[in-house]
Amino acid sequence: MTLAATAAFPPSAAAQLAAARPPLPLAALPPLAQLGELGRELQLHLDGRRPARLEAVSAGLDAVEARLAAGLPASDEPSLVRAELGRVRALLGRAAARASASAPAAFGPRAPGADGASALLRA
Question: What is the mean pLDDT of the chain?
Answer without folding.
Answer: 74
